[in-house]
Specification:
Length: about 160
């Protein structure tokens, strides 16, 4: 006997009692699960390289580039910053251990991994013209552009092929 697949939410009315109650129950399960293990779904099931990759804010002016990188849980000694051939590279290694012992459970979590993020900046700064600071999991870089390192934008016309 061939089984008929359940209809998708798109194929049924949004007010369908079956799907509304199923959706509500799934939400309750994740809320209860989250209260026991305070991790997001991305932390639990996301790719490890996504969890380690620092989020960046980059601002450029005529004279400098300012970069902020969020690197929570990484010690300053485990961060390496370099510029080679006009490419800024941030590398680091993250490791953490967490242990909880309660009457009904014993939880041990170990997380570790490394990241590498490269950002083309288009120039090599002069010696002593890069300032870096690290505080509360945020790496801040101020990179002064050398004289003559102006950006020129050229508009490219898009035609029909």
């Amino acid at each position: 006997m061939k089984q008929k697949p359940l209809p998708s939410r798109v194929e049924t009315a949004p007010d369908s009692p079956f799907f509304r109650s199923l959706h509500d129950e799934v939400e309750r399960v994740f809320e209860r699960f989250g209260s026991v293990f305070p991790l997001s779904a991305r932390e639990l099931w996301g790719r490890s390289e996504d969890r380690l990759m620092p989020a960046l804010d980059v601002a450029e002016t005529d004279t400098s580039i300012d970069i902020s990188a969020e690197i929570p849980g990484v010690a300053e000694k485990d961060i390496d910053v370099s510029i080679t051939d006009g490419v800024l590279t941030l590398k680091g290694e993250k490791s953490s251990d967490h242990e909880e012992k309660e009457e009904n459970y014993h939880l041990v979590e170990r997380r570790y991994g490394s990241f590498r993020r490269s950002i083309p900046i288009g120039f090599n700064p002069d010696e002593g013209k890069v300032q870096a600071s690290f505080s509360d999991g945020v790496l801040k870089l101020h990179i002064e552009k050398p004289k003559g390192a102006t950006s020129k934008t050229r508009k490219i016309k898009i035609g029909k092929s």
